[in-house]
Amino acid sequence: MSPGTTAAMTPLSSAIIFSTGNIIKGGRSTLEKSNRELINSLRQNIKDASTADKAQVANGSTSPKLPSWFENKDDVIYVPGRTEPTGLGEERAEYDITVKLFYLPGIPIHERCAHTRQALDHVLQELGVSSVDLLIASFPDVSFDAEDHSEPSEQAVAEWTQAYRTLEELHLENKIKKIGLAEFGATRLSKLLPHTNIKPSVDQINVRDCCVVPKPLIQLARAEKIELLTHNDCTDILPSAALNSLLQEDSATFGSFGRVGAQWVVKYTAVIQDRGVVENKGYFAMAKPASSS
Amino acid sequence: MGLLSLGTPLSWEEAKPLVDLIRERGIEQLLNIWKKAKGKERDILLWGDEIEYLVVAYDENSKDARLSLRQAEILKDLAHDKELQKAGGCVPSLQKVTPRAGQQCPTFHAEYGRFMLEATPGAPYGGTLRDLLTVEPDMKKRRVIAKQHMADNETPVTMTSFPRLGVPGVFTQPYYPPHGPIARSLFVPDEIINPHIRFPTLTANIRSRRGSKVRINMPVFYDEQTAKPFNDPTVSHDLFDYPEDADVRNGAAKEGHVYMDAMGFGMGACCLQITFQAKNISEARTLYDQLCPLGPIMLALSAASPVFKGYLTDIDCRWNVISAAVDDRTEEERGLKPLHENRYVIPKSRYDSVSTYISQDPGFRPEYNDVEIQQNFPLKQKLLDGGMDEPLAKHFAHLFIRDPLVVFSESVKNFDINMNDNFENIQSTNWQHMRFKPPPSGEDAIGWRVEFRSMEVQLTDFENAAFSIFIVLLTRTILSYGLNFYIPISKVTENMETAHRRDAVLSDRFYFRKQVFPHRHANRSGKETASTNSGHSSPGSPEMGPVEDEYCLMTINEIMNGQSGPDGFPGLLSLIESYLNSVNVDVETRCELARYLDLIRKRSNGTWETAATWIRNFIRSHPKYEKDSRVNSEINYDLIKAAEKLGSGEGEGTELWKGLFERR
C-alpha cells in the first residue's frame, strides 16, 4: 500500500498527536538543541514506521491494513500510529521520571488545563505508570534572563496561577509528586508564590554562561526550598512553521491536513536513579488543523 | 596491589611443581563464584578511585629531595591516630576498619614501593551526580591526613614516577647501596621494596622465572648536549656478584636508551585507577569492552612521566616501563628459543593492554577480536563444561596461561572452594589496562565490577578528580545512549604504543570509531530496539560494511572536542554534555562539573599542558639544566618542591599554578 492511499483520512479531526517514541538510543539527534531534536526525531519516527510498514507489506507477512504509522481513532489522528506502550524495564521505584510541559504561544489560556491533563496522560500511558516524580511547566512568555527584573503584569500572574491550579490538582490526585517551573527569575517567582497552595519544588533555568545565577534568585530559592535545576531546552520548542514544513515533506500523506497549529509539547525522561542511566526519553506534541483551532 | 596473604612463600623452584594445581583450583573457585553471582541483578552504581603517592623526604642542607622509605611507619602512625580510630580507622591491613556513616575516614594501603602510599575513599562514592562533587574534597582530605602522619621533612607527592629513582648515589632516605640479592639491580637497593614477604618474593620469582633480570629500555630524549650516540653511562659492565650481572654484557642495555633492570622502576610508579560496580554481569562486560578503546586515549591525556633514572626520555608515560618491569616471560615464551619447557609463545607481558573483548552486546562483531590469543584450553573446557559462555571463558583461559608468582604453602594445604585466593593469585597478577572483577566469593553485597587502569596520577587533586569524574560520566553516557566504541583490539594495542610518544596528546593520532551511535531499527512492535548488530540486515538497518571503514585516525582533540561537519565525530565531551542535559542536575553541580570537563577540553586542545610537558619544560628551563638530558639533584629538588606546592593547593593562583592551568 502506498502512503498516498491513506490521504483519504478526514482532515476534520480535532487533534493530531505526534510522538517520537524512545529516542535515547536514537543516535545523533540527541546531540541537538531540543527544538531540532524534537523535529528530527519526529521525522525519524515517521520514517521508521513507514519503512516498517512497507517492508511488512512487501514480505506479505500480514494482510494490508492501515499502515501503523498513521492512525485515526475517535477523531484523533496519531502520527505515527500508536504501538504497545514502552513501559519501564524495572520497578517503578527505581526511576526518577520527569515531565516537562511546554505551553505554546498563541494558544488560548483556558485550554491549558485540558492540555496539561492530556499531555500527562500520554506520558503515563507510554511509560505504564500512574504518576511522575516531577512535572515542570514552561510558559511561552517566560524566559530566564539574569538581567530581567521587570515586574510581570497582573494578567500574566493570573494566567500562570490558572495553569498552576491544574498542577496542584494533579498533585492532589497523586499523578505528580513534585511541581516545577521553568525559567522563573526571582521577581516572577515571588509574584507567583503567594498564589500557590502547593509550593513548587523546582525552578529549572538555562544557565548559558554557567554559574552566573543572580543572588536574589539563589536566596529566594533557598528560603522557599526550591531546587534550582539546569536545562538546555529551547524556549521556542515547536514553531508551527517547523511542524508544517515537516508535514509538507510528505505532502502525499499529510497534504489533507492543511496547515496545523502546534498546541503543546511534552518531553519526558525516565532515569534509573541509583545508576544515573537514562532509559527512556521522548516527546509528544499535539497540533490542530488551523481551521478548527 | 592484590592480596596480602600472610604465610610462608615458596621460591620459584618450590612453586613451579604447584602451578598447575593453583590454576586448577583458581578455575574451580572462579566457576563457583560465577555460578553464584551470574544472576546478580540491579546492583547500584558505586565507584571509587585509587590514588598513589610518592613519599618524599627533603634534605634541606644539601637541597635534595629523596624517596622516604618509611611507608610502614607512616601506616602505623595512621593506624594509631586516636581521632582516625574514632572515625572507624583507616589502615585495613593493621586494624579492623569499621566505616561509620557520616564521618568516612579515607583508607590507606601499602604499595610495592616502600616509598609509596595508596589512598582510597573510606566508602565508595554513590551513583548520583551530586556525589561527584565529593571526589575532590575527599582526595584533598586524604593528602592532608597522609601529610599529618609524616615527618616534618616528608611530604606526599602525586607524581607518576620519581625522576631520580635509580641514579648513582643517594636517592633514598636513608641510603642503601644497590645490588641486593632479591632484585640484583645495578641501580636500586632491595630496601625500596615493601618488606611484606609477598613483594620481595614477587620480585625474586619474576626474575627467576624469566631467567634474567627484567629489561627496561626507554629511548633517551636527545637534547643539545646529550652524548650521541647515547650509551647509558650508569651501567656497570664489570660486576660478577650474581649470574644476572652478565645481562648487560649480553646486550641488555640498548644504545640510545635509558636502561633499567628491576621491578621497582615500574611498580614504583603511581597511577590513578577507577573501579565501578555494574548493575549485573552483562553491564560489566559492556563497560569493560566500551572503556577498552579509551584506555590509550586517557593514558596520553594523563601523561605525566617523562623522566626515568635521572634522564629526560622521549616518552611521556609510565605504562611500558611497568610492562617491562614485571615481564616474567622466559626466552621460550618470548619466542627467542623453541618451546621446550614452556607451553606458549606469549606476545605480551603480564602487564599490558587488553587482548580480547568479552561482551555479547549486539554491537560486537567477531572481527573486533582480530588477535589470536593463547588460551589454557583444558581449563577453558572446565569453564565451558560448567556453563560459562565462550567469550568469557576465553578471557579467563587467556589470563590463566600465566603462572602464579607467589605461592604460600598454607594456601596450598588449605583449599576452600568458597574462597577466591587461588583465583585472585592469577587474576590480580594479570595487570591489563582493564580488569573485569567478579564479586569476591561469599560476599553478596558486592557486585560485578570493572577497573579502568591506564591513567597516570596527576599533580593536583583537581586533575585527579576531573579524570575520575570524566570516566564516570562517560560510563553513564555510554549506558544511556548505547554508545559503541568498538575498534579491532589490535588497534587498541597500537594506540597504546602511540600514547607513549612525547607529546602524543597533541602530536599524534589514534584509531577511533567514527560512528558511535547504535543503528536505529524500524521496530514498531513496542520496545525500542537499537543495535549495531547482526550479520544479516533487518529493514532499516544498513548492511555491515567492512570493519576497516568503521574507524579512522583522530587526534585526541577530535576525540574529545569533536570534528567539524555534520558527519564528523561529535566528541566525547558533547556526548557527556548532552547526557547532562537529559537528566536533572542542580545548578551548583552542573557548574562544578563544567569546571572538571573544562580541564579535559583544554588538555585535549592544547590550551593546558599535560604534567609530562610541564615537567619537561620545568627541567629544560631550569638554570642548572645542562641540556644533556640529565636531571640533577638541584633540578629535582626544585621540581619536587613545585609539585608539592601544586599538589597541596598552596600554589593556586600563583605563577606556578598558571603554568599548569593557563594557555601555553
UniProtKB/TrEMBL annotation, chain A:
| Taxonomy, superkingdom | Eukaryota
Q: Per its UniProt record, what Pfam families does this chain match?
A: Aldo_ket_red
**Does the keyword Oxidoreductase belong to this entry?**
yes
Entry coiled-coil feature ranges? none
| GO CC list | glutamate-cysteine ligase complex
Q: Which residues form the signal peptide?
A: none
**Pathway given in the UniProt record:** Sulfur metabolism; glutathione biosynthesis; glutathione from L-cysteine and L-glutamate: step 1/2
Q: Per its UniProt record, what InterPro entries does this chain match?
A: Gclm, NAD(P)_OxRdtase_dom_sf, NADP_OxRdtase_dom
Among SUPFAM superfamilies, the record links this protein to: NAD(P)-linked oxidoreductase
* Keyword flag Nucleotide-binding: no
One GO biological-process annotation of the entry reads: glutathione biosynthetic process
Under Gene Ontology molecular function, one entry of this record is: enzyme regulator activity
| Stretches assigned to the NADP-dependent oxidoreductase domain | 90-229
- What UniProt keywords are attached to this protein's entry? Glutathione biosynthesis, Oxidoreductase
Family, per entry? Belongs to the aldo/keto reductase family. Glutamate--cysteine ligase light chain subfamily.
Q: How does it assemble?
A: Heterodimer of a catalytic heavy chain and a regulatory light chain.
Name of protein? GCS light chain
Q: What taxonomic ancestry is recorded?
A: Eukaryota, Fungi, Dikarya, Ascomycota, Pezizomycotina
TrEMBL record, chain B:
Q: In which pathway does it act?
A: Sulfur metabolism; glutathione biosynthesis; glutathione from L-cysteine and L-glutamate: step 1/2
Report a single Gene Ontology molecular function. Answer: glutamate-cysteine ligase activity
Q: Which InterPro entries match?
A: GCS (IPR004308), Gln_synth/guanido_kin_cat_dom (IPR014746)
Polar residues composition-biased segments: 528-540
Q: Which domain of life is it from?
A: Eukaryota
Q: What's the EC number here? A: 6.3.2.2
Instruction: State the residue spans of region: Disordered.
Output: 521-546
Which Gene Ontology cellular-component terms appear in the entry?
glutamate-cysteine ligase complex
What biological-process terms (Gene Ontology) are attached?
glutathione biosynthetic process
Enzyme class, UniProt record, top EC level: ligase
Q: Does the keyword DNA-binding apply?
A: no
Catalytic reaction annotation:
L-cysteine + L-glutamate + ATP = gamma-L-glutamyl-L-cysteine + ADP + phosphate + H(+)
**Keywords annotated in UniProt:** ATP-binding, Glutathione biosynthesis, Ligase, Nucleotide-binding
Entry's Pfam families? GCS
Family recorded in the similarity comment? Belongs to the glutamate--cysteine ligase type 3 family.
Q: What is this protein called?
A: Glutamate--cysteine ligase
Which species expresses this protein natively?
Orbilia brochopaga
Q: Which gene encodes it?
A: GCS1_2
